[in-house]
Amino acid sequence: MSEKGSKKSLSRRSILGIAWAGSLTLIFAQAVIATLKFIKPISTGGFGGKVFAGKLEEFSINSVNRVLAGRFYISRTPEGLIALWQTCPHLGCAVPWDEEEGVFHCPCHGSYFNQQGEVLGGPAPRPMDYFPVEITDDGIWVDTGNPISRSQHDPAHITEV
Question: Which residues have C-beta within 8 Å of that of residue 41, sequence separation ≥ 6?
Answer without folding.
Answer: none
